Amino acid sequence: MAGPEGSGKQNVMNKNHPGKKWLQTVGLLLPAIWISGCATSGVQNPRGTEVTELKADERGFVTGTGIESQDLVSISDQIARQLMSTPEIVNATSPPMIVTENLINETRFQINKEIFLSRIRAQVNRQTRGKVRFLARRRMDVLETEKEMKQAGKLTSHSDPSKTAFKGADYFLTGKLQSLSSRTSQGISDYVLYTFQLIDAETSVIVFEDFAEIKKQGLEDAVYR
Amino acid sequence: MKARCLTLTLGTAGALFFTGCATQAPLFQYRDTGDPVEDGIHAIENAPAKDRVLWQYRTAAIAMRLHKYDLAESLLDDALASIGGIITNDKAARKARSLFHAESDKRFIGEPYERVMAYYYRGILYWVKGEIDNARACFLSGQFIDGDTENREYAADYVMLDYLDGLVMQKLGNEGSNARDQAEANSRYETLPPYEVDHNFALFVELGIGPRKYATGDYLEELRFRSGKKQAHSAVVRIAGQKLDILPYDDLYYQATTRGGRVMDHILGNKAVFKSSTSEVGDVALLGGTLMMTDRNLREAGAAVAAIGLISKIFSASTNPTADTRTWDNLPQYLGFKSLKLTPGDHRAEVHFFDDEGKPLKDLNRSITVNVTEQLRNSALFISSKKH
After folding, report:
1. Residue A199 in contact with residue A174, Cβ under 8 Å?
2. How far apart, in whole angstroms, are the C-alpha atoms of residue B308 and residue B316?
3. Are the beta carbons of B328 and B111 closer than 8 angstroms?
4. For residue range A11-68, what is the model confidence (pLDDT) as tens digits?
5. Which of A20, A22, B123, B222 is most buried, most CB within 10 Å of its CB?
6. CB–CB of B307 and A30 under 8 A?
7. Partners of residue B126 in chain A, C-beta under 8 Å
8. B97 touches chain A (CB under 8 A)
9. CATH assignment of the domain containing A117
10. DSSP 3-state assignment of B188?
11. Is A24 on the interface with B (CB under 8 A)?
12. Could you tell me which residues come within 8 angstroms of residue A194 by beta carbon, excluding any fewer than 6 positions away?
């Protein structure tokens, strides 16, 4: 290396020489590019994402245009509220017996068909505290076995099991989900119509009907288009 | 001498740059123990996260063929949860769009025909359990995915999905004729049989070996498909005294190749142009710079030009326009369907496969026992010409 007072021959590597400056610049630039190029390779998001607790009616960061928990919560709340104010329920002299019948799904989204009715039932039960009764029709297998065992005297019973019968339904609570969907280069759009009905089991009259509708749209990242 | 020294230094630095990243990501090695389900699950758990859905797809298809429906269901539910939403603001997707990363850095969800098949399989599983409205929802989602082709003529043109949509609608007491008309309009092979609403059993048959992906173009930036190896093209199923001829309704190779260009193809095209132009600029600058350095008076300027050329070459070499060729490689080529009426109880189905010239493929023949219960008004059997 040339000292501060180096000879003329030594100025080949003098610190002010443009060649050296270039070497320094490129020497610094290349490792910088190299390091920045490699910094993100390998494991993605190595520290992960901490579990985030959300309210069921809150929109999370993982979303689509389909049926989501916030839709379930808002719609079942609305339907339960309207159902409880139906004259047939409010003015009933004895608690009406209701059976929930699976929804019909005509949307493009596969769903657990019991989930809406389960939440409506739980909400109505919680709010009315016995003014409405739901019948456990989906548990009939277990209930019949229990009854047979009671009738056979294998199990104890508070009443004469041969004289009591399972209750019949006054109403059926059911519904239907329908959708209109479109997909173009501009994005995806889904409209879902939720209709719920309370049907008189003896007359087939629809004594209550309400609906909710939700439309969502979005455009996915270009790498997936 | 000085110029040589400079060139050598820059060259070494460049070489270091090129090799520096080569060994960063540990390569996943597929484990082959002879149990494809176990190996598939091992891959799901150990392969890079970006390939998780790919392994779920592959393992679910194997589980379907081995009639391990519960496993297939959970794998597909997990996969569909990943692909069913709208992926935005995703780090991996951003990387895949950037100049210096390959498309395969993105999370795999598959090309549309692969996503359609994930929904189709899930629909079959719903049908097996008698939930035909949810099955229809899956078929609709599949058709929906195929709805944004470049050429509208080929949009949402899966015959099977429309045919099944109409069948379910009729079974649920609706009309369903629009969907059937659509299926008829798109049908290329088989004359579609009339709907038999009282049929309680469905046969979903898949035949042949599905399409493969490959990359072409100067920088492998163009995604292409080739047809799978020749295998079964039709089948005959004998069950409960009935002989059912199964011919294909849909061809996945046709579906893969009729969608037209992707938005990603434009991105990869741009990357390729950048790679090519930076390489050319680099060549010119390196050559020009080297020549300049032979002249004493221009030596320093020549070194600068050569350095610019080298940096340009580095940018070119680092640009990665390679198309993503990860493939759901155990898909079939053809999809077929038949419905029939079966009485409750066990039934033995004898399945015979034939190639496209009608020659029997005796090695593929098989016999499957199905159980029809009174509780399920609709059930199904899944038959594949693939062993697993």
Report:
1. yes
2. 12
3. no
4. 444 545 555 555 555 555 555 544 444 443 444 555 555 666 777 666 665 578 888 8
5. B123
6. no
7. 110
8. yes
9. 3.40.50
10. coil
11. no
12. A75, A79, A116, A175, A176, A177, A211, A212, A213, A214
The answer, for A191 touching chain B at a CB cutoff of 8 Å, is no
Q: Which residues of chain B have pLDDT under 70?
A: 1-26, 190
Report the pLDDT value the prediction gives residue B9, as an integer from 0 to 100. 52
- Determine the distance in angstroms separating the CA of A160 from the nearest CA of chain B, rounded to an integer: 31
Residue A44: inside a domain, yes or no? no
Q: Nearest CB to A41: which of B6, B25, B300?
A: B25
Mean pLDDT of A63-87: 91
Question: A43 lies in a domain?
Answer: no
* Minimal C-alpha gap between B267 and chain A (Å): 8
A-B C-beta contacts closer than 8 Å: 142
- Do B97 and A222 make contact, defined as CB atoms within 8 angstroms? yes
Count of structural domains within chain A: 1
The dihedrals phi and psi of A31, each to the nearest 5 degrees, come to: -60, -35
- Residue given tokens 């046709």 in the structure block: B254
Q: Answer yes or no: are the C-beta atoms of B343 and B211 closer than 8 Å.
A: no
* Every domain of chain B and the residues it spans: 36-265+323-384
**Residue A210 Cα, gap to closest chain B Cα (Å):** 21
Task: Give the residue numbers spanning the domain of A86.
Answer: 69-224
* Single-letter amino acid code for the residue at A200: D
Q: Global pTM?
A: 0.82
Instruction: Nearest chain A residue to B48 by CA: give it.
Output: A43
Residue with the larger pLDDT of the pair A8 and B378: B378
Predicted pLDDT at B190 = 65
Interface membership of B126 toward A (CB under 8 Å): yes
ipTM surpassing 0.85, yes or no? no
Q: Does A135 reside within a domain?
A: yes
Which region among A32-41, A118-127, A202-211, A216-225 has the lowest average model confidence (pLDDT)? A32-41
Most B CBs within 10 A among A49, A223, A225, hence the mutation to make, goes to: A223
Confidence of residue A187 (pLDDT cuts 50, 70, 90): confident
A207 vs A138: CA distance, rounded Å: 23
In a domain, A21, yes or no: no
- Measuring CA to CA, which residue among B145, B20, B102 is closest to residue A33? B20
Q: Which pLDDT belongs to residue A39?
A: 41
Say whether B356 sits in a helix, a strand or coil: coil
